[in-house]
Every structure is written in C-alpha cells, then in structure tokens.
Design goal:
Elements lengths: L22 H23 L9 H7 L1 H13 L25 H5 L7 H11 L5 H12 L2 H12 L3 E4 L2 E4 L7 H14 L1 H6 L11 H8 L3 H8 L23 H5 L14 H17 L10 H5 L2 H4 L1 H10 L16
Antiparallel strand pairs: 1-2
Length: about 325
C-alpha cells in the first residue's frame, strides 16, 4: 500500500528537467553588486562620526545643570541612585508581571552615586586643603547631619559666575565646596578620566560617565535634538535621520504602544525583552506548528518564486496537482 503524501511534511519528488548552474559566476555577480550597493549607500547615508559626549562638555555648556545633578547624586535622589539592580539595591528593579527578574539577577555593576560620582573623585584633587578638611568633616558627620546639610543646600539658588558655582544656601556645611570643586574638576576633563573604570592602558568602560550624564537634563536634550529619544517611533541608535539598524524596529516598536507605553511603562524594558523572547521561540518553532507551516503552500507563494519552472512545466504538459509544490533545487 502506497504511503499517503503529507503536504506539510513530505517533499514532492522532482520530475522536471535539470539545468546547469554556475554557482561561482552567480556568487561573484552577487558579491560585486552587494559591495557596490554597500559602498554607495554608505557614502550617501552613512552614520555621522560625531564626537563622544563628555562630562567636560556638559559642565562647560550648562554648569548649573551639572551641579544640580551632582547634588542629586550626593543626596541619593537621582534616577541612577534609585534605579535598583544591576546598579544598587534601592528598589526591586525591572519586573515581568509579579516576578522581580532584575532582583533575581542581583547587583553585578555596583554603583554608589554619592561615593563614585562625587566624593571619591574629589579625593583625587591635589593641593586643596579646604576640600581635604571638608571631606574629613563629611566623613565624620552622622547621616542626620549630612541630610540636614543637603536639605539646606537644596533650598538655596544655584548660579555660575567667575568660573565657579555659587549658591545662596546657608548652613549647608561642606556641600557648597563639594559642588564648586566637582564642577571645576569636570570642566577641566579630569572627572571624565576619573570615572572611567579600569585605569590600565585600555580604558573602555564608560558606564559611570554615561550614568552620570543620563541623570541630567542636558544629555536628554541632545538626544531629542538628534531624534534619539526613546519616545520617538523608529529610534534606532543612530543620529538625525540616518537609517540606523533596521533590525531594531520590531524591538523599539513595543515601547510606543500600550500597554508597554502606559501601564507597563515602569517595567517596559523587562516586558519588551520577554515579548521578544516569546516571539523568537515562536519563530524557531514555526516549522513545527500545524496550519501555520502550511501557509506558504496554501498561498502558493512558491509559484511566484519558481515561476520560470512552472511556465516551462506547463509548456511540457503540466505537473501532478496532487503533489504540487516547490521543485527540488537543481544541481549542476
């Protein structure tokens, strides 16, 4: 008894003609065409080589914004200070539904914003006796006293004049000195160098400078001007109107639609990641899902791809409709 043909699984036996195929010639043509397209499109639409944004540039352009952000790092009210894993334990971090996945992963890039962004860099400044005394006083003070100083400083009005940060606050202890010296340090470029992890020959870890920059108002304004804000459709990690990585469109799309942009906004990163993982698994299982795997056969899209073969077959007398399908790949 003949085995029943299963169109979802079995490949039909190819009974047509075979044609010679020069894969070297076809491959060479494809390589030349693609190379010309890549070079030509890179010249016309290539990504601009803008210099990296630095703390020096920020503190020079907007010193008050820099000092205000530095104060939030010191008093623990900045976005990074309260972010949670992987930087600290200030919150549970990103969740997938009720599951705190970020907390499960834990803190593996520890960042103490007060110590890493403000106090430790200040200890590296030489020949500033008043600053050395101020740091000693800060270290010896109680948490209550530190909070009182920070609150007093926050109530004042900050300004920039004669190359220094000034403030109208009173009773703020050494905090005004910290803000003045840190801003001056940033304006010389020394803070950029100090925050780069790994002080060996290769210094390529820019995590801390980028986190510091992300807490201010100046850096997001640059991103918005270059159409790189996360709330813009099609944001693909490139500047201006340049194409960017086209494969990112599906990932970034979810941030713009509910519930990712509304009720899930606080955990959008984790929820988008989970969604993409589900879609990836479905894509991997596509050949095994009955019905879905038959869509190409039902739509007969293969007839468009192999139209020359079916045209030639029709001229020679047609093919068996019961086992119709894409022909086997001809061999040389």
């Amino acid at each position: 008894m003949a085995k029943k043909f299963r169109p979802d699984v079995d490949a039909p036996e190819y009974k047509g003609r075979y044609y010679p195929y020069d894969i070297i010639k076809e491959g060479t043509i494809a390589l030349v065409v693609v190379s010309l397209l890549v070079v030509g499109l890179a010249i016309l639409f290539g990504s601009p080589d803008d210099p990296a944004v630095t703390l020096k540039e920020w503190s020079t352009a907007q010193p008050v914004d820099f000092a205000t952000t530095a104060l939030s790092e010191l008093n623990g009210t900045s976005g990074v200070a309260g972010y949670g894993p992987p930087y600290n334990s200030a919150s549970d971090g990103q969740k997938i539904g009720p599951f705190p996945v970020a907390k499960w992963v834990g803190v593996h890039i520890p960042v103490d914003t007060a110590q890493d962004f403000v106090l430790m860099p200040l200890t590296t400044l030489p020949d500033v006796p008043a600053l050395t005394t101020g740091l000693r006083v800060w270290s010896a003070a109680s948490e209550t006293q530190k909070t009182a100083w920070l609150d007093a400083y926050a109530k004042g009005t900050m300004s920039f004049a004669n190359g220094k940060i000034t403030d109208t606050a009173t009773g703020a202890g050494p905090v005004p000195l910290f803000m003045t010296e840190l801003t001056s340090m940033a304006r010389t470029g020394a803070l950029d160098a100090d925050l780069i992890a790994g002080h060996g020959y290769y210094t390529t870890d820019y995590t801390k400078p980028l986190l510091f920059l992300s807490d201010g108002q100046w850096f997001p304004s640059i991103a918005a001007n270059d159409h790189l804000s996360g709330d813009q459709w099609g944001m693909m990690n490139e500047l201006g109107n340049y194409p960017g990585q086209a494969w990112l469109w599906l990932y970034t799309m979810w941030y713009q639609v509910p519930p990712y942009s509304t009720s899930w906004a606080a955990n959008a990163d984790a929820m988008v990641w989970a969604t993409m993982m589900v879609l990836t698994v479905l894509l991997a299982l596509l050949p095994f899902i009955p019905g879905v795997r038959s869509i190409p056969r039902w739509t007969r899209v293969y007839r468009l791809i192999w139209r020359e073969h079916y045209r030639a077959t029709a001229q020679e007398g047609g093919a068996s409709p019961s086992r119709e399908g894409p022909p086997s790949t001809p061999t040389a």
